[in-house]
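pasting for the record
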Amino acid sequence: MKPVFSLIRSSAGASPVTIILGLAVLAALFLFPNFVQSPYALHIMILIFLSVIMGEAWNVIGGYTGQYSVGHAAYFGAGAYTTMILLQYKQILPWYGALAGIGVALVVSLIIGSICFRLRGPYFVLASIAVAEIMRLCAMNLKGLTNGAEGILITEIPALKIGETVITDFSTKVPFYYIGLVIAIVTILVTWLMQNSKLGYYFQAIREDQDAAHSLGISLSLFKSSALAISAVFTSLAGSFYAIYIGFIDPPTVLALDISVQIVLICIIGGIGTIWGTGGRGAGAGATVRGVAQQPDCPGDFQAGACLRRVGRRHFPQRTSIPRPCAHLRHSGRGCHPLHAGRGPWLGQKAGSEKRKGVDHDTDPGNQACQQVLRRPGRQFRCLLRHGGGTDHGAHRPQRRR
């Protein structure tokens, strides 16, 4: 047992305690469905695995190679559409369709890389966005192949068989849980092997200084295309898994720009260029936001907004304060907020209709201070007032920026 730990420690640079803890977490993940039968909990875990796959895939091209692509929805949609089209029209099993989707994503990545890698910086970012939008428009207009805006719906997934033995019929979320877990582990393992290989060193050299790497004999186009191909493979695999799990796809679902933004945000929250940060904090935060926002007992906008605020307070050191309503307007439901623009007495309404308990808003010191703040150049959408406590409506004072 000791030689095994020494080998893992020398290659991964981790202590035995960290290795044992990682193996314990891995064992707990495999045993999780045996103790938790809640479909919602399994759904959240599946979304976490999906976020791990997408985040680690983008990390190869963005974190290690330094090419910030915001068009990974193209590869995500390529895998999803290839799998669903083959299953819908040719009755090809989805696991074979996922392999075909990987091939399509590889071809698309090589074509995109040969064109877009001639650009650098923000121009490459804009080019990647343009490619994803072209893919979305093609899927929207090729109605004979993709069914256009109506999308593709499958009502039944074929059972997974080995010979005549049925392994699973996909009637519950448990098979999807294990499939997502295995793909996530494989993605992390490939990323770790790439990071500690000569190929990974080439990627990091390109990220640090492209001109210096080129002067040392590193082919920029070759290794950038290699990084994009590796990233496209796992992003396509994530798209295929998502399509099989949800059972319905359309262009706004798998080819929209927000898919690419979500993938990038996973790495930003977890840490660009890190394996465990992207696979841990980033994927957990991204999946939690998506999962909680889909709760049926509360509007999605409120759930998503609350989740994003919690994630921001947790992961970003420079916290921003939410505008507080003015104390003298709380009873009327109005506050210094851009959503209330045009309805408050500080914007020129007649004071006769806005008097409350003998308080004249035209002469109220707090209201006058609010008018002054809102009329300052560049501060129309901020209310930097804060109530000092008590019931004195004139006790407003400017709130300092944090």
